[in-house]
Specification:
The chain contains no helices and 29 strands. With 403 residues, the chain is mainly beta. The chain folds into 2 domains: 167 residues, no CATH class; 180 residues, YVTN repeat-like/Quinoprotein amine dehydrogenase (Methylamine Dehydrogenase, Chain H, 7 Propeller).
């Protein structure tokens, strides 16, 4: 999408895919650079008393191949690579945009899948299923197309993805549902209607369930809710600030794609929902909320939950952000851009599904203060490694960590 329009988008989920080929004469090829990894050491930050010590940030940095700002990334939970998209505005007014793959172990860029110089750019929506990626391309005139990288040759673009939406709808998030053939998608109409839609999809097969319109007023404001998906129950969970009431509990909605019904209920915590994840095996969800700088745990079977402050947090400045699920060890990892346990840095907290804080990992510097694509944690649970935005404040890098 045009970088001047990126500020209009708040994309929370990540998933990699290739967009449709450009029209003839619209783009030109750019030389492939050589990427290096950082050898800069990162000091281990002491964790609060009583908590286990984690290896934490690793001396491995992914740098965008052309030095552009990273607009979304994800890693393959069953493989060895990750994907990212980058873009930068050139002196001639054009945008240099690229889709790239990197090595999870070394952080090196191993392939530039596509690079263009035009008025277009790419946004990574995430990786789903078994190493199936989805990327959005926004062309001049706010025309958005989508495409897929998938096995057996996931190093190139293989097919389009054509969601059942109008040209007025913007795909804002796709659930990070690796290991499941289906994922959930949230899109909203950015015309005066602000109609919100949720539907499920098999991205690789380019098939879709019937879109379900969100009719609760809290989902009709143009604000983007958090989205997570339970692949066992085939239900999506959405969470957003209650309309006109930022100092009460958020509004949550459980959308059942099988029956086509939606159950709306009041959440715990206060204010907008900043992050969300679901463990499909247990139907436990974890969220973060803005106003009360807290983390929540829900049993979606009963639509009940509890909230607790993030460790050491005393104000909204210390609110949590993204939540990532480790489905193998049944852990939730919570990002905190302004750490309340490591002053001047960012932290990731590790919780079990009972809400017990197991670890506090400090020493990060999330590069999301002015980013359109907010901080994101991507995990490879089998290796107990992850990547997160930063430390470069210009959002050109990703930081590896262990937990």
């Amino acid at each position: 999408m045009n970088l001047r329009l990126l500020s209009e988008k708040l994309i929370s989920g990540l998933m990699i895919a290739w967009l449709l080929p450009a029209h003839a004469g619209e783009t030109r090829a750019v030389a492939d650079p050589i990427s290096t990894i950082s050898e800069k050491p990162f000091a281990q930050t002491p964790t609060p008393q009583g908590l286990a010590t984690s290896p934490g940030p690793a001396p491995v940095i992914v740098r965008s191949a052309y030095g552009g700002r990273i607009f979304g990334f994800d890693i393959d939970q069953g493989g060895t690579q990750g994907l990212l998209t980058e873009a930068q505005t050139l002196d001639n007014g054009h945008v240099l945009a690229a889709v790239e793959k990197f090595d999870q172990r070394t952080g090196r860029i191993v392939r530039v899948v596509e690079v263009i110089e035009s008025d277009d750019d790419f946004v990574t929506l995430g990786i789903v299923d078994d190493n199936v990626g989805l990327v959005m391309r926004e062309r001049s005139g706010s025309v958005r197309t989508f495409g897929v990288l998938m096995p057996p040759n996931a190093d190139k673009f293989t097919r389009p993805w054509t969601p059942p939406i109008t040209s007025h709808h913007i795909v804002e998030s796709v659930s990070r549902s690796q290991g499941s053939h289906r994922a959930a998608v949230y899109a909203y109409d950015n015309s005066s209607a602000f109609e919100s839609l949720v539907f499920n999809t098999n991205v690789g097969a380019n098939t879709f369930g019937a879109p379900i319109v969100m009719t609760d007023p809290s989902f009709m404001t143009g604000l983007v809710p958090m989205l997570a998906y339970n692949s066992v129950t085939d239900q999506a969970l959405l969470g957003i600030q209650t309309l006109g009431q930022p100092f009460i509990g958020p509004t949550l909605a459980l959308v059942d794609f099988h029956s086509g019904t939606t159950q709306v209920f009041s959440g715990v915590g206060l204010g907008n929902v900043n992050g969300m994840a679901i463990d499909s095996a247990t139907n436990i969800a974890c969220t973060t909320t803005e106003i009360d700088f807290s983390v929540q745990f829900y049993d979606l079977s009963t639509q009940s939950g509890f909230s607790q402050f993030l460790p050491g947090a005393v104000s909204q400045f210390y609110s949590g952000a993204d939540v990532a699920l480790d489905p193998i060890n049944h852990l939730f990892l919570v990002a905190q851009p302004n750490s309340s346990t490591d002053p001047g840095a960012s932290s990731i907290y590790v919780y079990d599904e009972d809400g017990t804080l197991l670890d506090a990992i400090g020493g990060f510097h999330f590069a999301n203060s002015s980013s359109v694509v907010f901080v994101h944690i991507a995990l490879n649970p089998a290796e107990r490694i992850g990547y997160v935005d930063g430390p470069d404040p210009n959002v050109t890098e990703l930081q590896k960590f262990t937990y």
